[in-house]
What we know:
single chain; mainly alpha; elongated
Amino acid sequence: MIGGPGSAILYSGSQTAFDAHRARRLASNRGDVSRKFRRDQGLSLTEYKNRLQTLKLLELLEQGCSHLTHAALEAGFGSYSRCHQVIRELLGMAPSALLDPGTRKLLADRLEPLSAQHDCRDPG
């Protein structure tokens, strides 16, 4: 499973649902959760969600899905338009470029949701 225990929430629901779920678990409000997440992980909840959705899209394409709109919706993007916007922002290319297996392989390492550089946080 990509991204760990919270990723299923990211794929199946909205950002608000994810924030509310995390806030309840941490007995905090959404703003606190968002700030703590950014501090601990080095990226915002939205950036994290976008990376998870993009990884899921790559996974679906790798499994043989060749219809980008269906793959985008299955990956959790609300529309192909939103998918295009996120892919363009994250990768600097159109989603159609991801149909090439060589391109997908090169990009997979760049998209790890919580990269090693952010895993060097202070444990205390």
